[in-house]
Amino acid sequence: MSSTDRGARVVALISGRGSNLQALLDTPPGTLGGHIVGVISNVPGADGLARARAAGVATVTIDHRQHTSRETFDARLLREVLAWRADVVVLAGFMRILTDVFIAPLSGRLLNIHPSLLPALPGLHTHRRALAEGHAEHGATVHFVTAALDAGPAILRARVAVRPDDDESSLAARVLRREHVIYPLAVGWLCRGRLRLHAGAVQLDGQTLTAPLDLDDLHPAMA
Ligand code: GRF
Asked: How confident is the model at residue 69 (pLDDT cuts 50, 70, 90)?
């Protein structure tokens, strides 16, 4: 991974609130092993854009509605990411399905965080579905992005016990607090060159993971 004084160059893609972006912005470059050089939103006026600006980070809005196909939108996104010379690209609440036009050139450098214990509950409304399906456990997963939606190789998960009195918003809030822990951790591993996607498998520190790591099981030295 190329490095400067402030480590790897990270570009974040957002569509909304940007609390995971904020968690990354709040992680000192010395801890993250990188810094956010730019934020792209596909939604004009997304709250996360203001968070980026407040942190002095450059922003661009690329409105998907101005593009005639997913591929032309993705090509435009890719041009922006390449112009920023991104080493690492993170999806942080980015609500557009990406095609291989964007994904393939960034293979192994593109991460997403998803609010469920993947492979359970890919897609939308995960908290509502976890409750409706009576899951005892829920959580969040950081994974490499591949063309298969929410199905790229999983890296790190955080588990949250579902409580009898949970509703969608209480459960979402508890999961989100864990997201803000695992995303900076995994992004940091990638920024520092500790994490690799090799032949479809995840390697951390040269060891192939046979299953995603669990935040609660992490040895302090790994974090
Ligand atoms: C998070 O729950 C994330 O897991 C999902 O979208 C949500 C984004 O929230 N991909 P925020 O914009 O980071 O606050």
From this structure: very high
